[in-house]
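# nightly structure sweep
# worker-07 picked up a monomer target from the shared queue
# config: single-sequence mode, recycle default, output format = structure tokens
# input follows
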Amino acid sequence: MRARIPNVQTIYIDPRNAGVWSEAVIGAAGQSQTVIAAVYLNPQGGAAANMAALSSAPERLLHTVVRSAAARTVVVAMGNPYIASQIPEVQNYLCTFSDAEVSELSAAKALFGEIPTPGRLPVTIPGIAARGAGMSMSSGGTQ
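# output follows
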């Protein structure tokens, strides 16, 4: 992100510091043109496959940010695509299905329209999107 927006403000939140940083994050989100919330949560298999597992403090903060800046916020699910089930008010959502560095780089390129995003959800996210949902983007715009 910093290579594309040199003065980007980055705030790292985890369960230990979400409460401490909440006010700063909400303030920054309110003043930002765009908010990108990259949420790292490893995919789960078996019975827990369609359940997100954000802990309560980060979840509350993400709800607050999305509610206050929904149209300006993109939630990027780095790993578990089911995070959106916990944040049903999300309007802009990108799933990488991985938290590998190549996925981070690809997500940034996709957000800036540098690569096409022809992907479709291979799963259903209950209450959010059906399997096969998605929006194709060519480099530089919508198809």
